[in-house]
Amino acid sequence: MQSLLLLLLASTTLAFRTHTLHQHIPARPSLPNTTAPRPRISLFAMSERESQFRGLMDDLTKYSPSEISTIRSARNRAIFSGAKAAANNPRVVDAFIVLYEDLSPLRIAGNMIFNYLTARITKSIEQFDSENSVQIIRDSSDETDDTLRGTIRLGKAAFEAIDKDRSGSITRDELSDEILKVFGFDSVNSFMSTVDTDNNNELNFEEFMIALIKTTEGAHESINEIIAMNNDGAFVMTDDESSVVVVEKSSKYSIRYDNMLKSVSQWEGDIIGVGGVETVTLEDVTKLGRTERILYGCFSGAKDPQVVEALRSVYVDFTALRMAGDIIFKLLTKYMNSKTKKAKANTKQ
């Protein structure tokens, strides 16, 4: 870690000697904002670093929701889901490219974290598919492997929500009438006699999942219903089947991140005014200076919940990228303060 910090500090010094975020480059012609999965902004030859960044994004966003669901860490799952959302937002992509090209600390740290994340998801998929419980449940399901991964991941969250004492099994006392109705039963005795295959008066995870698959029409809907019944505030379900996101907003870094978001929202109002970033075309954004392009990417990304939570996870969990994020925020703050002073001076004149 000490060597990484020294490397980042040295890279920061080099970056500020050779680049500034205020320099301008010829505006890139741009593609219209479409629903294509990975929008391309440049119409002419990309720089080597832009090409490298786009390659990293392509690799990071190639995983399906069910593959992402195999990752045990909710915050790491949020990073992958947020990367997909960011890849579909041309303004965010453009801002990332500027930062990747101009700030070597971010580039070095980003490359390292990318390698870590791709190694984690590869290992997670392999381990998940090799688990005995998955093999047992797969034999009882008609779902494809890709769909089944997501079902099992959500099923684990539902199982843990019911298993209040964290014993690893569900007892009769933990089965409420509402849960029984999800499975289509009126009594605990009839339910247990049907699904408790080893007759030990408890349900293990395999028995629970097989019961869901065999006794309910839609396992996903039933799982969501069970989690909603037993939600104690620790889990927040998202529309993306890959995520059961643990929301942690108590850490000092998460609080600092929230304060940064508030500043970004204020800056958007100061620069653009009513209507926000959506009133500015992508073509106009790419004609701006590099600092402005970063700002507009921040404005757009701050309105996408998946991007926001992905960057929160990155900021809270990865020291190197948090340092780079602090550098970026200080530079943007300095730019906005300078812009405000100039505006006040012009008003006085």
Straight-line N-to-C gap: 52 Å
Structural class, judged by helices and strands? mainly alpha
How many distinct domains? Answer: 2
Low-confidence stretches: 1-37, 231-247
The main sheet comes to: 2 strands, antiparallel
Number of strands: 4
- Radius of gyration, whole Å: 24 Å
H/E series: HHHHHHHHEHHEHHEEHHHHH
User: What does the overall shape look like?
Assistant: elongated
The chain-level mean pLDDT equals 76
Oligomer: single chain
Keywords:
349 residues; Recoverin, domain 1; 2 domains; 17 helices; 4 strands; 66% helix; elongated
Condensed summary:
The chain has 349 residues and is mainly α.
How does this model look, in words?
- The protein has a two-stranded antiparallel sheet. A two-stranded antiparallel ribbon has the order 3-4.
- The protein has two domains: 2-15 and 48-127 and 248-341, no CATH class; 140-245, Orthogonal Bundle (Recoverin, domain 1), CATH 1.10.238.
- Mean pLDDT is 76; it is low at 1-37 and 231-247.
- With 349 residues, it is mainly α.
- It is elongated.
- The protein is built from 17 helices and four strands.
- The protein has helices at residues 2-18, 48-60, 65-68, 74-87, 90-102, 104-130, 132-139, 145-162, 177-183, 188-195, 205-215, 219-230, 252-271, 282-286, 290-301, 305-317, 319-348, and strands at 170-171, 202-203, 235-237, 244-246.
- Strand 3 (235-237) and strand 4 form a beta hairpin.
- Helix content is 66%, strand content 3%.
